[in-house]
Amino acid sequence: MIPVMIPMLGEEEAEAAAEAVRSGWVAQGPRVARFEREFAATVGAGHGVAVSSCTTALHLALVVRAVGPGDEVIVPSLSFIATANAVRYVGATPVFADVDLATGNLTVETVDAVRTPRTRAVIAVHQGGVPFDTAALRKAAAGWGLALVEDAACAAGSTAYGQPAGAGAAIAAWSFHPRKVLTTGEGGMVTVDDAEVATRLRRLREHGMNVSAADRHASAQPVLEAYLETAYNYRMTDIQAAVGLVQLGRLAGLVAQRRELAARYHELLADIDGLVPVRDPAYGQSNYQSFWVLLNPAFRTGRDEVLAELARRGVSARRGIMAAHLEPAYADVAPGPLPVTERITRDSLILPLHHRLTEDDQKHIVGVLRELAH
Ligand SMILES: *Cc1c(COP(=O)(O)O)cnc(C)c1O
After folding, report:
1. Residue environment code for 157-192, b if the CB has 16+ CB neighbours within 10 A, otherwise e
2. Average pLDDT, stretch 16-37?
3. % helix / strand / coil in the chain, to the nearest 5?
4. Distance of CA 325 from the midpoint of ligand 1 (Å)
C-alpha cells in the first residue's frame, strides 16, 4: 500500500530523544526553550510558546484575545474540526464562513458576509499548507477591529508575499502532529509578536504559575511560586522538543522535496480532464502538506468510488478536507449557505505525498485516475 503520508524521522531524532531521556530532564525544560527560539526564528515570529498540540495552541490564543461567552468567532467550516472546537472551549460561538474554491481558504469577502456586531475574532487557516492572503485578511481584520488568529497547523515552510506564512502574524497556532510536515509526535506552538502576550501564554500553559518549573529547579535559592490565574497544563516535554529541534533542521529540505513531488503531479495530471489539482496562489507558496485534487462534473467517477478503486490498487488516498458543519458535533449550528465548502469536501481527495514516494508510485496513482476519468 502507498501511504498518504509518512513522517520523516531518522536516527538523529531517535538519538536526540534518547539523549533527553539520559539527561534526566524529560518535562518542559531547556530543550523546549531552545525549540521555541529556533522555531520562532524559522517562521519569522517574535516569540514562540510551545504547547501540547495545535488544538491547545488555538485554545490559548482565544484566551489571550479575551474571547468568551456571547462572542462570535468566524471560522472556516472547511478545516480539521479542532479549529471550530477551540471556539467552544472558551464558551464562544463559532460562525462558519465559506472559502475560496482555488485555495480552500477564507477571504475578505467570505468573512465579511457573516460578520455581525457580536463578532470578536476570526480564525483563518492556511489550509493544507496553502497560505491564505495574509496581507488582505490582516488588513481587513484590523479595519473591522477584529482579532485575527492564524491557524498555521499545516503551514510550517509555507510562504506568503516572499516571507514565511507566520511572519507578521499577531498570533498564530502551529501543529507538530505526524500528519504535518514537521513532527514531535504530538505538539504545538503559539507564536506572537508581543512579549507580554508571550509571558501570559507561558503562564497559561503551566497552571498559571508566575515562575516556570524549569526556572524554579535551576535556581540555587528556594523560589516560592504564585498561581496568578486559573490555567492549564498544556506543556510540551523536552523529549518532544529534542525531536523538534532535529526536525527543524530538515524543514527546508522536506519542503523543497514536497514541492518537487507536487510539480511532478502537476505534470502527470495535466492531460486529465475534469480534475483540478491544488496550486500555489499568486501571493505565496504552499509546503504541499496536503496535495488535493478537485473532481469536476466532467470526471466520470464519483469521489468515493475513486477512493475505493485507488485502495483496491494499493493506494491509500483520503477524502478531501472535512467540513465541520456537516458533523454531528455541529448539528445544532444552522450556518448560512456554504456552497464552496460543500463542493470541496464532497468532490476532492488527497493524494499520497511523502519523502519515500517514487516517480513510479506517482505514475501508478495518476494512471488509476486517468482510467477513472472517462
Ligand atoms: C491538524 C490540525 C489541527 C490540530 O492539530 P493538533 O496538533 O493535532 O491538535 C488544527 N487545525 C488544522 C487546520 C489542522 O490541520
Report:
1. bbbbeeebbbbbbbbbbbbbbeebbbbbbbbbbbbb
2. 97
3. 40, 15, 40
4. 17
Q: What is the DSSP string of 257-313?
A: HHHHHHHHHHHHHTT-TTEEE----TTEE---SSEEEEEPTTSSS-HHHHHHHHHHT
Residue with cell 456554504: 338
Does the C-beta of 51 come closer than 6 Å to ligand 1? Answer: no
Q: What atom in ligand 1 is closest to the CA of residue 128? A: 15
Q: Are 63 and 90 in contact (CB under 8 A)?
A: yes
The DSSP element (H or E) to which 124 belongs, if any, is strand 119-125
The reply to whether ligand 1 has any atom less than 6 angstroms from the CB of 190 is no
Query: What domains lie within the chain, and their CATH numbers?
Result: 11-249 (3.40.640.10), 251-373 (3.90.1150.10)
pLDDT in tens, 35-45: 999 999 999 99
Of residues 353, 348, 363, 359, the one with CA closest to residue 289: 353
Which pTM does this prediction carry? 0.97
Of 78, 80, 150, best ligand 1 pocket probe by most atoms within 8 Å of the beta carbon? 80
The distance from CA 144 to its chain's CA centroid, rounded to whole angstroms, is 25
Rounded distance between C-alpha atoms, residue 33 and residue 152, angstroms: 20
CA–centroid distance, 360 to ligand 1, in Å, is 31
From the CA of 188, give the closest atom in ligand 1. 7
Section 77-94 average pLDDT: 98
- Determine the distance separating the centroid of ligand 1 and the alpha carbon of 181, expressed in angstroms: 12
Please give the number of the atom of ligand 1 that sits closest to the Cα of 289.
Answer: 15
CA of 61 to the centre of ligand 1 (A): 14
Catalytic member of 180, 202, 250, 325: 180
Ligand 1: which residue has its CA nearest to atom 5? Answer: 54
Is residue 139 annotated as part of the catalytic site, yes or no?
Answer: no
pLDDT digits (tens, 9 = 90+) for 189-217: 999 999 999 999 999 999 999 988 888 88
Q: What angle do CA 264, 265, 267 make, to 5 degrees?
A: 65
